[in-house]
Amino acid sequence: MKQQANLIRAGQVIEHDGRRWTVLKQQIITPGKGGAFIQVEMRDLKTGNKTNERWRTADTVERLITEDKEYNYSYTDGETLVLMDPETFEQFMIPVELLGDQAPFLQDNMVLNLNLVEGDPVAVTLPPQVTLEIIEADPVVKGQTASSSYKPAKLSNGVKTMVPPFIEAGERIVVRTDDASYVERAKS
């Protein structure tokens, strides 16, 4: 389906130069002189190579329709994620690289949303938040106020984040899966 370039959004799958691309980032740039254009960072679905492309906002691109399907995460086998269809119990395998920076947030039996184009996986979406334990947290520095300062901490999955000073090692917190930022203390 054709759409204007200024309607391209992250997560969409487009066809360009005879290849399929998943959109990673987009930005509309309005220079001081001349017409606006859209800068798009995208990844080739077959090779995994990234590229940047520019279109005028009035240009059209071919957007591919994706089918969304939920799967349960079973386990990781090397560079492959093994997912299970909750309805048919069939296993489905996808490359770990589809998750990108979100891979450390995978948890057993987590429900993942998989985007498919003609049966081929093109993107995976994790739940927006997960609960993890703090394994290391710097001590509170006397004189810092709770409202403005955060301290570094390490989560049980190895990811580093910034937490408020009252959070200690051993506590469970809720973090965002897209940027590993602190949301709140986990409710027991």
Summarize this structure as a short list of keywords or feature phrases.
single chain; 188 residues; mainly beta; SH3 type barrels; OB fold (Dihydrolipoamide Acetyltransferase, E2P); six-stranded antiparallel beta sheet; five-stranded antiparallel beta sheet; 0% helix; flat
How would you concisely characterize the structure shown here?
Residues 68-122 form the Translation elongation factor P/YeiP central domain. The chain has 188 residues and is an all-beta fold. Helix content is 0%, strand content 53%.
- Discrete helix count: 0
Helix content range: under 10%
Please state the structural category.
mainly beta
Q: What fraction strand?
A: over 45%
- Cα radius of gyration in angstroms: 20 Å
Shape: flat
Query: How many strand elements?
Result: 16
Characterize the main sheet.
6 strands, antiparallel
Residue windows where pLDDT falls under 50 for at least 5 positions: none
Order of strands side by side in the largest beta sheet?
A: 1-6-2-3-4-5
CATH topology of the largest domain, by name, is: SH3 type barrels
Identify the quaternary structure here. Answer: single chain
End-to-end separation in angstroms reads 48 Å
Number of domains: 3
H-E order = EEEEEEEEEEEEEEEE
Q: CATH top level of the largest domain?
A: Mainly Beta
Keywords: Cytoplasm, Elongation factor, Protein biosynthesis
Domain Elongation factor P C-terminal: 130-185
Main location: cytoplasm
Pathway: Protein biosynthesis; polypeptide chain elongation
